[in-house]
From TrEMBL:
All residue ranges annotated as the HTH araC/xylS-type domain in the record: 173-283
Keyword vocabulary terms for this entry: DNA-binding, Transcription, Transcription regulation
Designated name of the protein: AraC family transcriptional regulator
A Pfam family hit: HTH_18
Gene3D superfamilies: Homeodomain-like (1.10.10.60)
Species name: Mucilaginibacter limnophilus
GO terms assigned for molecular function: DNA-binding transcription factor activity; sequence-specific DNA binding
Length: 283
């Protein structure tokens, strides 16, 4: 089987549920882009440009990064030599609830946390320990790796608490959290015959047993962005991913995203991006 990541046996990763490795100092770039079926977190020291969810992120110095498998991503370029570690794991290996509820893997948030020298030293120790355990025949290896992953996640949140953590303590914050979680749980779309079910604020409000006006006020108050804006941005991001990483025709993508006719989808996509779906696919 051809590895999707240089030096990583993907079949072994899927069988064991986890993988820890040191980052290669250099490699042929760019890596193959696309969605994968594993989560990833790493410690990187150096300069790197990563495409994540359609945006270019600059990783400079020493940083922690967290990759949600639902978000298309790839390394675009590296400057000088980079070093560090990466830990890949499947959803079934970890507690899925811990992953789904962690703001570190929330689509739309930055997956990068800059570290100072003390924080970098702590993370380096944890990742070195994970790598050492991974290379041993310790019978409880899986449990120890799982605990190390949880430790990294909690230390990362301690270093950089989520921006909306305080807001979640009030009613508007909790409603916004519920809305964003419900929105994200609809993705990724994996089959064209299972169309998106919630596509407008009214449908989300009904699912959450709220009045739509209250939902709109809460989301706007906490995020500064209207409910419809969040929905439109997420549908547009999924449309781009389906156009880039599947061979579905535009009509199938339109149906999967809940549009009754392809022409409706074409107009919607062009209004948000400035180009048609077919033009985007050719770029």
């Amino acid at each position: 089987m051809t590895d999707e990541i240089p030096g990583v046996n993907m079949e072994d990763l899927r069988l064991k549920g986890f993988r820890v490795h040191a980052l290669q100092a250099s490699q042929e770039l760019p890596l193959r882009r696309g969605r994968r079926d594993f989560y990833k977190m790493g410690l990187v020291n150096g300069d790197m440009t990563v495409q994540y969810g359609g945006e270019l992120l600059e990783l400079k110095g020493t940083v922690l990064f967290f990759v949600n498998p639902k978000v298309p991503h790839s390394v675009v370029s590296r400057v000088n030599r980079t070093s560090g570690y990466a830990c890949l794991f499947t959803e079934t290996f970890m507690n899925s609830r811990e992953l789904h509820e962690s703001p570190l893997f929330r689509a739309g948030d930055s997956p990068v946390i800059p570290l100072d020298s003390v924080q970098a030293a702590l993370m380096d120790t944890i990742f070195r320990q994970m790598l050492a355990v991974y290379q041993e025949d310790y019978p409880y290896k899986s449990d120890l790796i799982r605990n190390c992953i949880s430790l990294v996640l909690h230390e990362a949140l301690r270093i950089q608490p989520p921006k909306q953590a305080a807001a979640f303590q009030n009613g508007a914050g909790r409603v916004t959290h519920l809305f964003l979680d419900l929105l994200e749980r609809q993705f990724p779309i994996e089959r064209p015959n299972e169309p998106l079910r919630l596509r407008n604020p009214q449908e989300f409000a009904e699912r959450l047993s709220l009045h739509v006006n209250y939902l709109n006020r809460a989301v706007k108050q906490v995020t500064g962005k209207p409910t419809s804006g969040h929905i439109a941005a997420r549908i547009a991001a999924e449309a781009k991913a389906l156009l880039q990483y599947t061979d579905w025709n535009v009509a199938d993508i339109a149906y999967a995203l809940g549009f009754e006719y392809p022409s409706y989808f074409n107009n919607y996509f062009k209004r948000l991006t400035g180009i048609t779906p077919n033009t985007f696919r050719k770029v």
